[in-house]
TrEMBL record:
It is an enzyme of class 2 (transferase). It comes from Streptomyces liliiviolaceus. NCBIfam families: acyl_WS_DGAT. This is Diacylglycerol O-acyltransferase. Residues 11-266 form the O-acyltransferase WSD1-like N-terminal domain.
Length: 460
């Protein structure tokens, strides 16, 4: 199969990995649940009509993912670090794109998070552009929710935000800077090396080999002395449950100013404390538990890089769930995060996703289903931060009041946590295997209690 370079874009290595890891019991889409204040009971239906009409004009929403068989080096130049390989995939415009297939209006619901859980467990259709928008009116007519779903191979958190914002009401934003023009390249430009660049490419290849060995050794060490909880482990069932909670950002800043560190340190420590409370209350117990949390770090490619797409690293830390002192838990998280930052995002077990760049496309196709099953050997829970603009956003004139980011659930894991700050509040979005975690609402409440406990500890 061939794809014309003018209308297609090869998937970046990590996007290709996300595409090939997926199965029906293990969907790889991320999401965002937005809640809007409604002026009338008809606002939800109007919002669905607007989303469908606007989606047709957003090029990124017309892109489907199709298997291709061509050398990966053909369009990105000769690179000693990436041999020619076959079995990739590319984004290309869908010839039969129909927005109404992707925007759906549902019956009114009393619990938006419960509705989102049922919708998040449905895999996206792989033959069509891999995204959906679900509009759920509130039963009281004063609000409605929109659940956006994007396959991780189509968009990471930042790109998903840009695609969602493109179908909301227009905002006055500064014009983007023009992308530099790329020089014309001949037919053989991707196959014949530029000899002036060979020394640098060789040095880069050797550096990459050393980095890969360092990451591999760190991954091996990360599996030693694992002290997790059975509550965080799940056999993939394909079921999903969603919960969310919002806390005041001022409270987080008060804690940070009192003990130092960063806002992110506090948000991670809150997760550790909430897990402790949740495990104790459900009877599993927190004694001796220090699960490994993966904290993703975006390593976005330059605008001129080919292929575009996800490039993630991460920090791996042990959450001090077994420590009864909230301030001591925060100090432990702060120390661990500082250690990771000093080492940098290109080192350590959390950087394992960077190794996707060095796997040929056919390796992703054949090996990723097996690799996906090993995720829980590396980490026990995902805790990711998704940046949001502080600007107010509206849909059909209805203001967006809450945004809960929803992360994909790794195979074999029961729980993923995503965090966003929006208009003075911190929104925790929780996604869990519905069969393994029937009491997800209890964990959500524990997050609120933990913030209050940390505040009390700071002033005492």
């Amino acid at each position: 199969m061939n794809v014309r370079p003018s209308d297609s874009d090869l998937l970046a290595p990590l996007d290709l990995a996300f595409w090939n890891i997926e199965s029906r019991e293990h969907p790889m889409h991320l999401g965002a649940l937005g809640i809007f204040a409604a002026g009338s009971p008809a606002a939800g239906r109007h919002a669905a009509d607007l989303l469908a009409a606007r989606a047709a004009g957003v090029p990124g929403l017309r892109m489907r993912i199709r298997d291709v068989w061509q050398p990966l080096g053909l369009r990105q130049g000769f690179d000693l670090r990436r041999p020619l390989a076959f079995g990739g995939a590319a984004r290309e415009p869908a010839p039969d794109f129909e927005p109404l297939d992707h925007v759906r209006l549902h019956a009114p619901a009393a619990d938006f998070h419960a509705a989102a859980g049922a919708l998040m467990q449905r895999p996206l259709e792989r033959g069509r552009p891999p995204w959906e928008a679900h509009v759920v009116p509130g039963v009281d007519g004063t609000s409605f929710a929109v659940l956006f779903k994007f396959h991780h191979a189509l968009a990471d958190g930042l790109r998903a935000l840009a695609l969602a914002a493109a179908v909301l009401d227009p905002m006055d934003m500064p014009a983007p800077r023009p992308r530099p023009a790329e020089p014309e390249r001949g037919l053989l430009a991707g196959l014949v090396p530029d000899v002036t660049k060979l020394p640098g490419l060789v040095r880069g290849a050797l550096t990459d080999v050393g980095r890969a060995l360092d990451i591999g050794a760190s991954v091996a060490r990360a599996t030693w002395d694992v002290r997790s909880s059975a509550a965080l482990v799940s056999q993939p069932t394909g079921t999903r449950r969603v919960a969310g909670v919002a806390v005041e950002l001022d409270e987080i800043h008060t804690i940070r100013k009192s003990v130092g560190g960063t806002v992110n340190d506090v948000l991670i420590a809150v997760v550790a404390g909430a897990l402790r409370r949740w495990l104790d209350e459900r009877g599993d117990g927190s004694e001796g538990v220090s699960p490994r949390a993966l904290i993703p770090v975006s390593r976005r490619r330059p605008r001129t890089a080919h292929p575009q797409g996800n490039r993630l690293s991460g920090y791996l830390i042990r959450l001090p769930v077994d420590d009864p002192d909230p301030l001591a838990r925060l100090a432990t998280v702060r120390t661990a995060m500082n250690h990771n930052k000093d080492a940098g995002p290109n080192r350590g077990a959390g950087a394992v996703a960077l190794l996707a760049d060095h796997v040929p496309a056919i390796g992703h196709r054949l090996g990723m289903p097996v690799v996906g099953q090993a995720a829980r050997l590396l980490f026990d829970i995902l805790v990711t931060s998704v940046p949001l603009p502080s600007l107010g956003m509206t849909l059909g004139g209805c203001p967006l009041t809450e945004v809960y980011p929803l992360a994909p659930l790794a195979r074999g894991q029961a729980l993923a946590v995503a965090v966003s700050t929006f208009r003075g509040r911190v929104h925790y979005g929780l996604v869990a295997d519905a069969e393994a975690v029937p009491d997800l609402d209890l964990l959500a409440k524990s997050l609120t209690v933990e913030v209050a406990e940390l505040n009390a500890a700071c002033v005492s």
